[in-house]
Amino acid sequence: MDVVEQIKTTVETNPIVLFMKGTPQFPMCGFSSRTSQVLKAVGAQFHSVNVLENPEIRANLPRYSNWPTFPQLFINGELIGGCDIAVELYEQGELERMVKEMQKA
C-alpha cells in the first residue's frame, strides 16, 4: 500500500485522527501538545500518528491535505486544520460539539 493510500485509510477508518509530532503522552512540539490537550479536554477518543516516526507520512501528508504544517486534525475524514484552528474551535465550544456529535453517530 503506498503512503497516500495509507494516509487515506487512516483518515477514513478513524473518526478523529491527529497527525502530530510525537505522541499525546510525549508530544515533541508545543503545537502538537496543545492540540492533543484540547482534544483530551473535550473527551475526544482520537487516533494519533507520530509523523516523526514515519518520514513518508510526514513528507506526503501536506500534499494529501493541502495543509503545510503539523499537527493536522481530521474529524470524520475531513481536515479541520492545525493547532490554531483546533484551539479556536475549542475556545468557541465548537470542538466539543463536533466531537460529541460524532460520538453519537
From TrEMBL:
Residues 16-80 form the Glutaredoxin domain. Gene3D superfamilies: Glutaredoxin. Glutathione binds at residues 21, 58, 70, 83-84. [2Fe-2S] cluster binds at residue 29. Keywords: 2Fe-2S, Iron, Iron-sulfur, Metal-binding, Redox-active center. Transmembrane segments: none annotated. GO terms for molecular function: 2 iron, 2 sulfur cluster binding; disulfide oxidoreductase activity; metal ion binding. Belongs to the glutaredoxin family. Monothiol subfamily. This is Glutaredoxin. It comes from Pseudolysobacter antarcticus. The gene is grxD.
